Amino acid sequence: MIPTLIATFGLASGLAITYYLFKSPNPPELDLQKWWGSGSPVAVVDTSIRPFKIEFNYTMIKDLKERLHNRRTFTKPLQGIQSEYGINTIYLETVLDYWVEDYDFKKRADLLNMFPHYKTNIQGLDIHFIRVKPDVEDVEVLPLLMLHGWPSSSKEFDKVIPMLTRPRVGYNFVFEVIAADLPGYGFSEGTNKPGLNPVQIGVIMRNLMMRLGFEKFYIQAGDWGSQCATHMATLFPEQVLGLHTNMPLSSKPVSTLKLILGALVPRLAVDRKYADRIYPLKNLFSYLLRESGYFHIQATKPDTIGVALTDSPSGLAAYIIEKMAICSSRIELDTPHGGLQHLDLDDVLDTVTITWMNNCIVTSMRLYAEGFALPEVQTVHDIPTYVPTAAINFLYEVIYQPDWILRDKFKNLVRSTVIESGGHFAAMQTPNLLTDDIFDSAVEFLKFHEKNKRIRDQNY
Q1: Which residues are identified as catalytic?
Q2: Residue 397: closest CA among 284, 251, 295
Q3: Which pTM was predicted?
Q4: Where is the active site (predicted)?
C-alpha cells in the first residue's frame, strides 16, 4: 500500500510540475484604452500628431554647468583599483570636464533634429517619437517600430535610422522607421499612476502605431523595449509581422529549468563555441551578482536613489556611464573607462543630457519595479508567440540563451545570429552589424509570410 501511495504521489507531483513548466495560460484581460494621464480620462481625446523640436535651452545648460563646476571633490579609487569598485572617479572628472567645456549642446541638438520628431497623446500620456519615411519608388516600404531600453531613448537609434531608410543593393524593400521613447523616458511623458509595466507599455506602443495608420508592422527592440515588443507580439500576433531583438529572452519556467539542466552537459545544451557565454553557471551567477545591484535597487526603491540622481548631474552621469560601460564590455574593469571606450562619448553624454533635462531618471527607473509587480507580466511571458522572430546575440549582451531555450517562447525563430563582438547598446556600438541583421531578418519574415500564404491558398 505504501509503495503504491508513494508512486501515485510521485506521478501526481510529476504531472503537476510538468503542467506548471509547460502550461500556456490564457491572455490577461486588458483595457486597451486604460488612462495613464493625470486625473480621470478626458471626455474628448486629443488625437493630433504635433511636430516637436529638441532644444537644449540656455537656462538648462547654465544651471547644469554651474552644478558641475560646484561639484564636491570625489573620493579617489583605492590603490591599484581601476573600475572594479564602480566608476573610476579620476576618469569621471575628465568626462565631466569634457561635458562642461567641450560637449557642444547646440551641435548635438541639431544632430538629433536631423530627423522629424513628433508627439501625440496616447492614453493620457504625450509620447515622443521619430518618424522617417524613405524617399523611394518601386521598392516595398516596411513599417518598423524601434524600441529602446534603460537608460536610453530613441536617440539610441540615430546611427541606424539613415541606413534603414536607404535602399540597399540586393534587397527589394526599405524601412519606414518609427523610433519611440518609452513612457517616462527621453521626451515621453511619465505616469503618476502605478502599474505601467512592459505589458501595458506594449499596449501603448500598439496604439501609437495604429494612431499613425499602421494596422500591421514590424518591431526591432532591445532591453526593456524588447520585453515590451515581445508582449506585443504575444498579445497582437495579427498586427506584429515580425520581431527582431538584440536581447532575446524566454522567461518561461521551463527555460530556467533547461538552463540549469544544460549545466550538466553544456556541449549538448549549447554550441561549444558559445558555451562560455552561460556555462559554468557559477561564472554567470558571479557576473550577475556583481553587476545587478542597480537592478535590485531600481526594482525595489527607485524613488530613493532617484533623489540623488535628480539633484546631482555628476551623480547621474556616474550612474548612467558606469552601466553603459559595463554593458558594452564587461571584461575591462581593470581600465579607467571600464568599457566606455567602445561607445562614442558624445553619444553617451547625449543620453545623460536628455535624462537630465527631462528630469526622467525616476520615471524611467520605475519600470524595473513595475515589471515585477503585477501577475499579468508573468502570464504573458508564459504564453508562446508564433510571430516570426529573429534574434541577434552580441558578445557582451547581459545574458545569452541558445536557440533551444529561446524556442520555448518564440515558436517561429526564423533567424538566430551570434556575434563575437558588441554589447547591450547595439545601435550605438555596432550600428552596421545591427542594420545588416535587420535587413536579413526582414527577408526571413517575408519568406515566412509568403510560405504561410501559399499554404492557406492551397487549403481553399
Answers
A1: 223, 368, 424
A2: 284
A3: 0.93
A4: 223, 368, 424
